[in-house]
Amino acid sequence: MIAKSLMTYARRKWRLYSFFILSSLIAASCSHPRVVVVDQEPVAVDAPHLMRGPVIVIDAGHGGKDLGTNSKTLHYEEKALTLETAFMLEHYLQKMGYRTVLTRSEDVFIPLSKRAGIANDLRSRLFVSMHYNSAPSKDASGIEVFYYLSDTNKKRTIESKNLGDHVLREVTGATGAKSRGVKHGDFAVIRETKMPAILVESGFLTNPEERQRILQRPYMQKLARGVAKGVDDYLKRAK
Ligand SMILES: [Zn+2]
Predict the structure, then answer these.
(1) What residues are paired with 42 via a beta bridge?
(2) N or C: which end of the chain has fewer CB within 10 A?
(3) Centroid of ligand 1 to alpha carbon of 122 (angstroms)
(4) Ligand 1 centroid – CA 111 distance (Å)
(5) Partners of 102 in the β-ladder
(6) What is the CATH number of domain 47-238?
(7) pTM for this structure?
(8) Where exactly are the structural domains of the chain?
């Protein structure tokens, strides 16, 4: 499993390097319009000046043997929904001109420390982990964003909270979901990363109405676009 995840990482790294080379060649050979091929999918770049900009690591929560919140009778697994959302988020961020790296792009188990390690090794600008929520009560609903409160790195704490504020505002605006706030959370992926990092709990799969919305592709697209817009807003203000 670890060997496989390392291969995924190596493949991703290679894709990133190829992407750098490809975008430099395109920049050198033509002025406009730009269409860059990433993962066999052509992406029309709306903001070419950002193509050498920050790298954003997108983490699809869970994977492989770790299903996340799930129900056999209701036919859902969090790990599949987070991956689908991560691909959409990647798409929207690339359309905005950002470089992206996924911690996983298939259904594999990757230890939490490895996920943080990928972002740290790449020295990525931001880390965004995507999850869906569950609760004993079916009534619980809405979106919440977590950041890590560190006593030793106050700057990262402030930046992470600020990123979380932008993302929550945009994602609740885009989906109409209830805002549950930006909160401190002691989760390994946001604790062990060295750059501003957030974990987005994108809605409750245990709430029947919210689950129905999440399982519909247009809603998930709005959600992913909202997260991308929040990231973009944060980075534009953080310059
Ligand atoms: Zn989760």
Answers:
(1) 37
(2) C
(3) 24
(4) 13
(5) 58
(6) 3.40.630.40
(7) 0.80
(8) 47-238
